[in-house]
Automatic annotation (TrEMBL):
Family statement drawn from the similarity comment of this UniProt entry: Belongs to the SLC41A transporter family.
Lipid bilayer topology: Multi-pass membrane protein
Domain CBS intervals: 146-208, 209-265
UniProt xrefs under SUPFAM superfamilies: CBS-domain pair (SSF54631), MgtE membrane domain-like (SSF161093), MgtE N-terminal domain-like (SSF158791)
Complexes and interactors: Homodimer.
Main localization, broad class: membrane
Localization per Swiss-Prot or TrEMBL: Cell membrane; Membrane
Listed name of the protein: Magnesium transporter MgtE
Organism annotation: Microbacterium murale
Membrane spanning residue stretches: 293-313, 319-337, 369-389, 395-419, 431-454
Function summary: Acts as a magnesium transporter.
Xref: Gene3D superfamilies: CBS-domain, MgtE N-terminal domain-like, SLC41 divalent cation transporters, integral membrane domain
Length: 456
């Protein structure tokens, strides 16, 4: 069967990717183009995400112009930036002009600062002004992620008049499903949904249809605003300035994008790596190495604390070598307990369930949790160790588990709050650093208890 006869629309992404890679390896661009022609946009996006940067640019150039624009808009900002660096200036300028202002800002944040002025100069004065208004906000604020293209209405307009306004702007507006209602000073006084407008009589006033608006200040955090938007189930949220005047609209799709990115970063950093911008199998080896090596070096330096503690208590180990058998068990249990606490509190921070001012409450709560876990594990450890060795060794292991679990849970619980207080990503302070810290402190606790009970 020839390539032209293959029903690629029925292939899953893995099969399609294999076909494309085979065509590229043979330098048969015509076959690759034919393979792609019946494929929907969403699947082309998945293929591009899995190709290496060079092949991604080659395949992208094979797409028809309109589909190329659709595919580019559907890519993540990281992949957009990577693709821009592989395309010619004329191609980049055309794609950049097709993006919405908020999507342009996402892309500019992924490109070198020297590129932004050149791309902005290629825009029309109106589009340049819209994009610059979003660029004026700090990078982590919701103002940076809002769209300045929206449709508004007023309380004294009718449903029919509002629908006419909406139809006149429908091609440019970010969303038409939720319309901010503003007074004559552009202050937000409510919102009205498209559903209510269509269901209302033509002469019904917007004032009788509108609902209270949930607004967010433009300088507030993007992640917090995105979580509010999704938690409240809102399709769009008006963004306002310090005087409650409308400056933009923030939609549910942008909220989902922000939360996906933040959760990916948190998950990666809790494991001691930097997040990857593209799927694992298409990420260059050097980039994966770069994402891990810094953390490994930091943790290796931290692990020297554990070595130092062992050297300090070397004489104790020589007197009773059986103590060395339990070192992996104790420091592993402590590290796991601390990681559990840190993960729980980091998640609670992200959801807004706790704040840095709750540090004392979290500390006492995790202390009680750690103590309870330590007692349960300590009793089990005492029983098993007393049967295999003797009751004194069992008592050392049992008491150490109680102490280590209490300390680990407490430290693991408050570390994310401390990180948020000093404006550091809580995920960075989580698992890798807590494991290193608990290893060292756990050994100190272990040998101090052993010396006290065994008299060595």
């Amino acid at each position: 069967m020839t390539t032209e006869q293959i029903p690629t629309q029925n292939f899953d992404t893995a099969d399609l990717l294999e076909l494309i890679e085979q065509s590229l390896s043979r330098r048969d661009l015509a076959a690759a183009s034919t393979t792609l022609s019946p494929v929907p946009t969403w699947q082309i996006v998945q293929v591009l995400e899995r190709l290496n940067p060079r092949d991604c640019a080659v395949v992208y150039r094979l797409l028809p112009k309109q589909q190329a624009v659709e595919v580019f808009e559907a890519l993540s900002p990281e992949l957009q930036g990577e693709l821009v660096r592989s395309l010619q200036d004329a191609e980049v300028a055309a794609l950049f002009a097709e993006l919405d202002p908020d999507d342009r800002v996402w892309l500019l944040d992924e490109l070198p600062a020297s590129v932004a002025p050149r791309l902005l100069r290629g825009l029309s004065p109106h589009e340049r002004e819209l994009t610059a208004s979003v660029l004026g906000y700090s990078q982590d604020s919701i103002g940076r992620r809002m769209s300045p293209e929206y449709v508004t209405t007023h309380p004294d307009l009718t449903a029919a008049e509002t629908l006419r306004r909406m139809r006149a702007r429908i091609a440019d507006a970010e969303t038409i499903y939720t319309l901010p209602v503003t007074d004559h000073a552009r202050r937000v006084v409510g919102v009205v949904s498209l559903r209510d407008l269509l269901a209302a009589d033509d002469d019904a006033f917007v004032e009788s249809l509108m609902q209270d608006a949930h607004t967010v200040p433009a300088d507030s955090g993007a992640e917090a605003a995105a979580r509010d938007c999704t938690d409240l189930g809102l399709l769009a949220v008006p963004v306002v300035d310090s005087e409650h005047r409308l400056v933009g609209i923030f939609t549910i799709d942008d909220a989902a994008r922000i939360l996906k990115r933040e959760e990916s970063e948190d998950a990666a950093r809790q494991g001691g790596v930097e997040p990857l911008a593209r799927p694992y199998l298409s990420t260059p080896i050097r980039r994966i190495v770069r994402s891990r090596v810094v953390w490994l070096l930091v943790l290796a330096v931290g692990a020297t604390l554990t070595v130092k503690v062992l050297s300090v208590f070397e004489a104790t180990l020589e007197q009773l070598t059986v103590l060395a058998l339990f070192v992996p068990l104790l420091i592993g249990t402590g590290g796991n307990t601390g990681n559990q606490a840190a993960t729980t509190v980091t998640r609670a921070l992200a959801l807004g369930e706790v704040r840095p001012r709750d540090l004392v409450r979290v500390l006492t709560r995790e202390l009680r949790v750690g103590l309870s876990l330590g007692v349960l594990l300590g009793l089990l450890g005492f029983g098993i160790t007393a049967l295999v060795y003797d009751w004194q060794i069992g008592l050392v292991i049992g008491c150490t588990l109680v102490a280590v679990c209490s300390v680990a849970a407490t430290i693991g619980g408050i570390m994310p709050l401390v990180a948020r207080t000093i404006r550091v990503d809580p995920a960075v302070f989580s698992n890798p650093f807590i494991t290193t810290f608990v290893d060292a402190t756990g050994l100190v606790i272990y040998f101090v208890i052993a010396k006290a009970i065994l008299g060595i």
